[in-house]
Each structure stands twice: as structure tokens, then as C-alpha cells.
Design goal:
The structure is a homodimer. Chain A has a nine-stranded mixed β-sheet, with helices on both faces. Chain A has a two-stranded antiparallel sheet with strand order 5-6. The first copy, chain A, has twelve helices and eleven strands. By secondary structure, chain A is an alpha/beta fold.
């Protein structure tokens, strides 16, 4: 079997950038990824590209993968746009991994980009809404806060999870984001303030939701046999798992966990020959705070129904047993839809190399990391395990 | 290296189906593909899906890959939407091929689907327009007929290609489509009628353009070692080549050929260890008639500038030296954007098996076939070589 490693990563700051278009954001991340390759790399050596984006409509640009590679001055290579809602670039990363696994290519890039803040709010809501079930949920008036609120309520009812635990995720992730110069929401919040923020859909309040974000991320992957040409600190992709689920909640047997994410995690662990307790650090898909608690359970960091306890006990803080979202997560680092999956890889690669610039944000001696990227309300999911 | 074969294909009729939605079209093609697997197949054995669609906007559906697999009753498997404009499912087929090449999966499906005819014409024009260059071409008022007309004019000027040769492609492809019950435009046209049809953008007249089409196609791919479980007539994927190009014509050094398609073809031939003269039958991307002439040249069926002669000499007719678009092509079989690439595979698989139902449409003793699928005005392209 061919080994696959990440040899370079780049990511823009996440935020609101009215002065930058989609192409500029992509090139910024790509340029950083090239510079991040320790021994240097000729961009002409990149043989294929997979680029995740929801293309949130306002850009009016199509054939986006070719457009991005053109703008990045790597024309002519095969490039595809991958769209799986909020886990578009998680799947793009998986495609890049598989392209090298074929033995046909040595160097492949995975990217993600989203420009959300040039759309009026109403339009953004429309575009995001289509990533869940449209016919039975969105057209009936439901939106993502409403869907995740139903999941949260059921979790509270069934397992005794508390609003304090759910919103505690936001407090932790904001605290981490303060130390991350690339994060969008760099301010601490108290549990009290978050609990008392305006209700979006009970039990979710304002600070339970991620922001609307512009951003891009790029990872350069390399066949194992060639990594020494590029870096002495390759980060290997040990496992890639992905799955789908019924889009509408009413079609699922249970709504207290996201089955697609659970299957994806199982497949990734199996491929890597690893267990949940082997993971030293994880970036998970906390589009809403409750989603991080679901992630704990999907990933086996906690038993079904017990995810809330990890928050109460501080186990997922930096310095805790299994630090989750040291970057600030989608919640506070930001969630540029199509870029999020590769953005998670960016964070984990730096954590595993031990070269996160901000010392207080480093997870010490991390050797094995995980990314968990979910599309819509769990219709799609992809999990990767990375290894030093 | 792992061998990869197509073991089953399905395709809806192409046309205008106001009574069917995107999901029904996809399931119809999927159901036929399952039934087409000679020794039968349990759909639960399908391990991953790649589905191409431009999602022409009117559907208001997102996370489409998960939605299609859900509807097809193959839930939970990894599924991704691939979008590369008009070659979306050509790239989805390539992804499925690569997924098996990794050695990680035995059975993977590639699909494509498009529902274009429930959009008002104006909206369709908008959605299609974004697949070319938006900033410099579309927003300046250019559309695809205009872009291909510029290419055609230059080809005429530079090489002496005639309007009769260009429009002759339409006459041939309509003639083939008459014999194809799954084609959209099943009527013959005379060269005189086509030449005198209304001008779209000189030199292209109405019959030089493909129609607006609803349709879907699915192919089931299998690891070589397991094909005997499913069929005695596997069709192997001998080569897969893909490439991109600058989106806007003014950025390209030459506009008389589509460089992405030429590179893709070279890569596919190289991988297959084959030459243009080895190809017995081809389905090529004739969104406009001039595009088929460009395809002849990209694929090495004719020298640069000499593609028009193949039409004059009838070499690409069924029964000619190298029959092209025996299905009727995009021009007359129809062009349901996202479905076109896998729809081409559907035709070639039947031609190579020798089981095309309509005897007069069969290319006799075809052993090696080729598909050529282009995105936008050549921003992306993908070529596959299939072998009996």
C-alpha cells in the first residue's frame, strides 16, 4: 500500500474580508502552503487538485476548480470541485489522499474556499439551507439552528445533557480562539453571557452558533516514498473514513447522534488500526455547540449520551485528556463552509509537528490527531486520522 | 496495479420530463445499471459513490450526493458531488476509477444527473453561463454560442474549415439519434435546412447547438479481480486522463483547439499504452458542432486543422473509419450537463459489448472505445479509454 503524507499546509485568516474575492483567498492559502513545505517545492510538481466549495452563490463563478488552479498559476493540471455541503473540503482531502493511494500520482493538493460575506444575509440563509433536507425541512420553514436545536433538546431529554454543558463548548472554543491569530471571533465569553444571549431556537442561543466566514485552506499531499525530498516532518494520513445519512431528521432512527459521522469514524479508526484513546488532539465540526458534544460521542471520546460530561470536567480543554478544537473550532475560529475541512487539517498538522506559533495553544507531545467534518445536519461526514 | 472494469450501466431517456424530478431520474438510471449487471448484484455491495451534477439551481437541493444515494436505497455509503461544469460526471467516473485503483474498494459507482427543463430559459442561461469565464466573458455579454462561434470562426480562417463541415456534424449526429430510442432529438435534418436555420452567433446556426436536457446516467465499476462474480463481459478502464485550461479564451495561446482536452487525451493514451488509431468508437463532447471537430483533433483522429475533412469524407459515420457519437452525441442524444460524461460511458460500454439493441446503430467488432467530456468552453476536460 502507498503511504500518503501532508507536506505543506496554508490557511488564510478567517473573517469578513470585503476587499478580497474568492480567488485571492484561495491563492493566499495556496501560497502559504507552498512556503510551508520545509525543503521547498516547485508548484509545477503538483499533479492534481481537489477543491471543496459550496460556492455560496454570490460569486457567480462556475468551473471553480479550474479557476482556482489558474489563479494559483498551476494551470493545466486535472482539478475538480467537490461539493458536499459543509464537509466539501474534508471530502476533497479524502479525494487527494485516494489519488495518491492509486500509485498514479506523487503530489496532489486539496483545497477549500468560501466567500460568504458578500451575500446579503437572506441569500446566505437560502444557500446554507439547501445543504440540509430541502423538501421536508427547509421548505417547511426549518433552518439549521432549528434542526440542531431539535437534536439538542432530544439529547437533553434522553441523556440529561444540560444547557450549561452545551454552551460550555462555546466558552472553551472562544477561549482557544483568542490565542489563534487566524480565528474570526477572538474574544472570550463567560458562560453567563452566552447562556443569556438571544435565543436562536431553544435551547440554542446566539453564542451556540458559528459565525459567517470568508476563508480558504490548502494542503499538499505527497506519496510516502517521496516525502524526504520535501520535509523531515511529514504528517501521515493514517485513516480516511466517510459516510452519508438520510438528510431529513425524520428519516433517521435516532437523532441523538449523527450516524454518518459515527460510521466515518469507525472506518477511519479501522483503517488506521487505532482506537479513540490513541487520539491526542482533534478538530471537530462544531457548527453549533451541540454538534461538538455529538462529535465526542461519534468519535468514541465519550459513550453515547455522556459527551456533556467532557465539557463539565474540562477534559477537552487544551491541557485536558483529549483537547478538542484548540484552533477555536468552527464556533470561534470560523466556518467558511467549503474551506473548513482542510482548515481542520491545517490545525492538526501544526499541532502534530509541534510548531503552532502560539505556545499557549499547543497541545504538548501530540502524535496522533483527528479531523471530523460534517455536511449539513449530518447528511455527509468525513473523518481523517493524521499521524506524526 | 489494480484493474478496474465497468460491470453495469444505466441511463434514462434524455429529453424534457416535467413529471420527473432529479431524484427519480437518478434512481431510474441506477435501477437500470443494477439490472444491467449480468449475474446480478446486491446494491449493498456498492461501497462509494461519486455523482456529477451542475445542479442547475432550480432544484434548490443541496448535499445532492447523499440525497441521490438515499433515494436509491444505498444509504450510509460515502458519496460526493463532483462539479466540473459540463464534464462533472466524466470527473465522477474518474474518481470512481481512482477509488478502486487505491485497492481500498471493490465496487464503486459513478453517476450523473441534471434536471434543466424546470427552469425558465433565462435562469438556465444564467446557470450555464457561469461554467465559462464569468468576469471577462459572461459579464461582458458573451455566452457559449458566442464563445464557440469565435473558436469556429478562427478555425475557418486559419485552416479553411467550412460551415458545411461544421454543420455536417449535426446532420450525422441527428441521423444517429433517430436510431437511438434514448435520444432527445430523434429526427433527421438535411444540411440545407441546418445551414439555413436561424443564426445563434455566426457561423453557428440553431442546429449547431445541443438541446436543453433532463437525464441521468450511472455506471458501476468493479475491481478487476472480482469482475467474474458479476459479468462475463467486463469493460475495462484502460486509461483516464484529465486536465484544465484557462477559462477565458483571451488567456489561451491558441483558440483553435481545446488544450485541456488534448492533454487529457495524451494522458489517457499513455496510461492505456494505445494510439489514436487503436480507437474503434468514440463518444465526444459536441455541445456545439465545432466542438466535435476540435475533438477529432484533440484525440488525434485528425491532424490539427484537418478535423473538418473527416466530416466531408464521412469517416466518423457509423461504418466509417472511426465512428464518433453513434448515440447521437450531445447534439442530438441530448446534453443533461452533469449526466453527460457517464452517459457517454453508457454508450461505449454497450458498443464494446456489442449489445446495442438497435442493430443499425452498432459499430461492428469494436474492441476499444473512448469518451471525451469537456467542461465549459474547455476549462476542464476528461478522457477515458475503455477496452473489451
Amino acid at each position: 500500500m502507498v503511504d500518503v503524507a501532508v507536506i505543506g499546509v496554508g490557511q488564510t485568516r478567517y473573517g469578513t474580508f470585503p476587499e478580497k474575492d474568492m480567488k485571492e483567498l484561495f491563492v493566499e492559502a495556496f501560497t502559504e502552503a507552498l512556503a510551508d513545505v520545509e525543503k521547498g517545492i516547485d508548484p509545477k510538481g503538483i499533479q492534481e487538485a481537489f477543491i471543496g466549495t459550496l460556492e455560496t452563490g454570490g460569486n457567480q463563478l462556475g468551473n471553480v476548480a479550474a479557476l482556482m488552479t489558474e489563479q494559483a498559476h498551476v494551470p493545466y493540471i486535472p482539478a475538480s470541485r467537490v461539493e458536499n455541503a459543509c464537509c466539501s473540503s474534508g471530502f476533497a482531502f479524502r479525494d487527494a489522499f485516494m489519488a495518491i493511494k492509486t500509485g498514479m500520482y506523487d503530489i496532489v493538493m486539496a483545497g477549500g474556499v468560501e466567500k460568504m460575506n458578500d451575500l446579503p444575509r437572506e441569500r446566505n440563509r437560502y444557500w446554507l439551507g439547501v445543504s440540509g433536507d430541502v423538501e421536508w425541512e427547509r421548505l417547511a420553514g426549518t433552518n439549521f439552528p432549528g434542526i440542531y436545536a431539535m437534536i439538542a433538546l432530544r439529547h437533553m431529554y434522553q441523556y440529561g445533557t444540560t444547557k450549561e454543558q452545551i454552551t460550555g463548548v462555546a466558552v472553551k472554543n472562544h477561549r482557544n480562539a483568542v490565542k489563534n491569530p487566524k480565528a474570526q471571533l477572538r474574544f472570550e465569553i463567560t458562560l453567563e453571557r452566552a447562556m443569556n444571549s438571544p435565543v436562536l431556537a431553544y435551547p440554542l442561543t446566539l453564542f451556540d452558533a458559528c459565525p459567517t466566514t470568508d476563508g480558504a485552506a490548502v494542503a499538499i499531499l505527497c506519496r510516502g516514498e517521496r516525502v524526504e525530498d520535501f520535509t523531515d516532518t511529514p504528517i501521515y494520513v493514517a485513516g480516511s473514513g466517510a459516510a452519508t445519512d438520510y438528510l431529513a431528521l425524520h428519516d433517521r432512527k435516532e437523532i441523538t447522534h449523527l450516524k454518518a459521522a459515527t460510521i466515518a469514524a469507525q472506518n477511519a479508526y479501522e483503517q488506521a488500526g487505532l482506537e479513540p484513546q490513541d487520539i491526542d488532539v482533534a478538530e471537530v465540526h462544531d457548527c453549533f455547540t451541540i454538534a461538538e458534544i455529538l462529535a465526542y460521542e461519534s468519535l468514541g471520546f465519550a459513550k453515547e449520551g455522556e459527551g456533556g460530561r467532557l465539557v463539565t470536567e474540562g477534559l477537552t480543554e487544551i491541557g485536558g485528556r483529549i483537547p478538542v478544537n484548540p484552533s477555536g473550532g468552527l464556533k470561534a475560529k470560523g466556518h467558511p463552509i467549503g474551506a473548513t475541512g482542510v482548515g481542520q487539517v491545517y490545525e492538526i498538522v501544526h499541532q502534530l509537528r509541534g510548531d503552532v506559533k502560539e505556545r499557549e495553544r499547543r497541545v504538548k507531545n501530540a502524535e496522533i490527531g483527528l479531523t471530523h467534518n460534517v455536511g449539513g445536519s449530518g447528511g455527509t461526514a468525513v473523518v481523517h486520522i493524521l499521524k506524526r
